Amino acid sequence: MDSLTQFALGAAVSAACLGSKTGPRKAALIGGVIATLPDLDVLIPFETRIDQYVYHRGWSHSFFIHVLATPVIGEVLVRCFNSLKDQRALVWVTVFLCLTTHALLDAMNAYGARIFWPFHPDPVGTGSVFIIDPVFTVPLLAAVVWALASGKWSKGLRRFLAGSLAFSAGYLVWGLAVQAHIHERGNAIFAAKGLDVKNVKTVVTPFNTLLWRVIGQAEGQYHNLYVSLFDGDEDAVVYSHAYDASLVSCVADDPEYHKMLWFSDGFVRTDLIDGRIVASDYRLGLSPTYIFRFAIADYADGAARKITPEPIVPSISNAGTEFGWLGTRMSGQPMIRASEQELVKQTNANQVSGC
Fold first, then answer.
1. Sign of the Cα pseudo-torsion (104, 106, 109, 114, in order)
2. For the chain, which residues make up each domain, given as ranges?
3. pLDDT tens across 201-212, in order?
4. Of 86, 179, 204, 239, most Cβ neighbours within 10 A?
């Protein structure tokens, strides 16, 4: 999740656990700082930008590392704050919760987190909550603002903290339940349209849990299906994108390309853009505005030359149109995604002869 949400979650957890011992303001600040620690892995000097993309949310998000880090951070707090000297067990529990709730929340994004590293090195990501979701964040932020503004612990603050944490936890459960329901509907729609899909992933669209994207992989192509909780399935529109097998063959032995395949569970598309082969993780973002896409090779005269991966910043020139489409589809009203329809045409037209 975004840094503000992670700070708010850690601060709310810590204020609820330690607020009565050390004061709500100090407890909230302690928790907020601890909850930001896992994301300091962005300061690690990775070799390439693709390494930075696939190894972020790595060992620093592992529950096993959190077990090891808890007594170290806990002892620092016990020794630094007189009000916590006799609260060692409670402090350790609070530290562990601030760290693990951060990782668990990240594991509920499509990007995922390596929460079981090193025993299970692959990232875990449900895709049931978007990286920024105001419905999840605002109640926690309101509770934290109250805690930071309070000089003394009160029953009212305790109830509000407990209520905000309960609401946000319930919202995550809601997201998982809706995702399972939409996933089942998506599979049924694919079957009804005669599409033989083998690997289906359902991920939430930006800023909500009402509209979902169901991605179905098939032989030589993949299909995007947008399903709202309020939709009638008879109006479903499927956007089919052909794989360019010849272009894939140009980067088949590129280790950077294989890192992306591993991280995305195979949900990578390749495109020829301005003479460069571009690989995109098409789980993240809305086609064609992918959040993580990298130029990995130059292509000319039927030959590819490997280059140092270069990130491509997604364009937001059509943001107003996309937000309009998003709002319409969230409410269950049918509307064609013009940008994705255009991408289908471009994909089918830009075929190459291979390498």
1. negative
2. 3-175, 235-349
3. 999 999 999 999
4. 204
